[in-house]
Design brief:
This is 1-aminocyclopropane-1-carboxylate synthase homolog (inactive) like. Pfam families: Aminotran_1_2. InterPro entries: Aminotransferase_I/II_large, Ethylene_sulfur-biosynth, PyrdxlP-dep_Trfase, PyrdxlP-dep_Trfase_major. Keywords: Pyridoxal phosphate. By secondary structure, this protein is of the alpha/beta class. The protein has a single domain (about 50-95, about 105-204), classed as Type I PLP-dependent aspartate aminotransferase-like (Major domain) (Aspartate Aminotransferase, domain 2, 3-Layer(aba) Sandwich). Helices cover about 30% and strands about 15% of the residues. It is built from 6 helices and 7 strands; from the N terminus they run αβαβαβαβαββαβ. The protein has helices at about 20-30, 50-60, 75-85, 110-120, 145-155, 190-195, and strands at about 45, 65-70, 90-95, 125-130, 165-170, 185-190, 200-204. It has a 7-stranded mixed beta sheet with strand order 1-7-6-5-4-2-3, with helices on both faces. Strand 2 (about 65-70), helix 3 and strand 3 form a beta-alpha-beta unit. Helix 2 crosses helix 3 (about 75-85). It binds pyridoxal-5'-phosphate. Pyridoxal-5'-phosphate (PLP) binds near residues 49, 137, 189, 192 and 197. Pyridoxal-5'-phosphate binds near residues 50 and 197.
């Protein structure tokens, strides 16, 4: 018992242990080049990415709203967004066939986001979130910084921070040139970032 610190017997800070959040804030500010210095208050730590997706789906949206997501995508997101937030996916279909405007299979473009958004709006679906998984799971593509900027600009056209928001993944696996500016909520998890699923740890 002598080696246990007294605060381990108390409930921890529900936003995450402060010293850990301080380190994450420093990391995101320096390594990921946040446009403004991040502080521990800006960071929330949770039990894995799925827990963050479930929480964000309830706080960013209303039941029945849609979220844009390039497909194919990791299937676990749908169940969390639906079960907790009552949200429906609005797929941005990516194809293995390369057309004249594309340079590689399953290429994502801002035009494809726009087309999917318009299709959803015609069906009366209010789209409020753009979910970008980077590197893409299951494709493994790392989106170039220019494309991420275009995607974020797309998201910002709609009443920034109210109507459509972006969630992006994984800055750690990008090279310096690939790193996008941190302009939207960012979700990072140990299962994707460092292939350490047992830690069940993610932060937003
Ligand atoms: C895109 C994506 N979201 C969520 C998860 C699940 O993350 P966690 O185990 O942290 O809940 C994974 C796991 O590979 C993933 O690839």
């Amino acid at each position: 018992m002598d080696c246990l610190e007294p605060d381990l017997f108390q409930y921890p800070d529900t936003q995450g242990v402060r010293s850990f959040r301080e380190e994450i804030a420093k990391f995101l500010t320096d390594y990921a080049r946040a446009t403004k210095e991040l502080r521990p208050e800006h960071i929330t730590v949770m039990n894995g990415c799925c827990a963050v997706f479930a929480t964000l789906s309830t706080v960013l949206c209303d039941p029945g709203d849609g979220y844009l997501i390039p497909a194919p995508h990791y299937g676990g997101i749908n169940s969390k967004m639906w079960l907790y937030g009552g949200l429906q996916p609005v797929h941005v279909p990516l194809s293995s066939e390369v057309t004249n405007e594309e340079s590689h299979p399953f290429q994502l473009t801002a035009e494809k986001l726009e087309a999917a958004l318009q299709r959803a709006e015609k069906q009366g679906i209010r789209v409020r979130v753009l979910v970008l998984i980077n590197p893409n799971n299951p494709l493994g593509d790392i989106y170039p910084a220019q494309l991420l900027k275009e995607c974020l600009e797309f998201a910002h056209r709609f009443e920034p921070w109210r109507y459509l928001r972006g969630v992006q993944f994984s800055i750690m696996q990008c090279s310096d040139e690939e790193k996008p500016p941190l302009l939207s909520p960012v979700l990072c998890g140990c299962s994707e970032e460092v292939a350490c699923r047992g830690l069940s740890l993610a932060f937003v």
